[in-house]
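Good day; I would like, with your permission, to put a structural problem before you. The record follows directly beneath this note:
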Amino acid sequence: RLANMDGGSIAFGFGTNPKEQSAMRGGPMFELLFGIDTLLRRQGRRDKFRLVFFNAAKEPGKRLGDKAVAGLLREMQKRSIATHLGHKLTGFAADTITTEGGELPADLILFMPGMSGPAWANEAGLPLSDGGFFKADTHCQVAGADKVYVAGDSGSYPGPDWLPKQAHIADLQAKAAAENMLLALAGKPPVAHFKPELICIVDTLDRGILVYRDEKRALILPPCRLFHWAKRFFEWQYLRPYRKAQRA
């Protein structure tokens, strides 16, 4: 659709699960926003488009840390991307976004809603959080369930309020869950925990913005070509064993 557009307004946004505030995916939408801006500039068409980012929060991406929010909004301003923040969404039409702060006309809307638990979760007979995710402890063991563990987006875990649903922390949770499952099968108590940590590179198509947060610090580094290529290499390296297995 973008290739066939001669110009117009493109709106980008994301939401959350009101019953589970951590159930959101802002990173991919920031990448789409900055990536499309970069693409249009490469094509010499950026002046024909109005890009606008909308979010119900006044500080979108707050879970990334205060510095990250300021850095992302600064990048939007630098790229002449308009914002519509702090207004609750009330509806969508094919060419309009309606919020409590007014309507946003748009020729193309890119929106990622908040996440919910698996559709089959209610039939699993396991305890769920208010948002529909499997309730787990810091060992990734499902509450009250013997030898049942969860990792990644399907679980609801204790931790800081910024604890993300993200691939990196899903890896950490999977490692803890696997270690504890092996201990449980050997008749031993769980000991492994996952580290509350957020690491991501927001790719802009030619540069990357590194964001990091743990329980002690939070930082964001400015756009850099090195981070763009670092992310490309990491993705290749990460997927390599899976692609190799598919070819086998």
User: Anything to note?
Assistant: The two ends are 37 Å apart (CA to CA). The first helix runs from residue 27 to 42. The chain has a mean pLDDT of 93. Residues 149 and 178 are 8 Å apart (CA to CA).
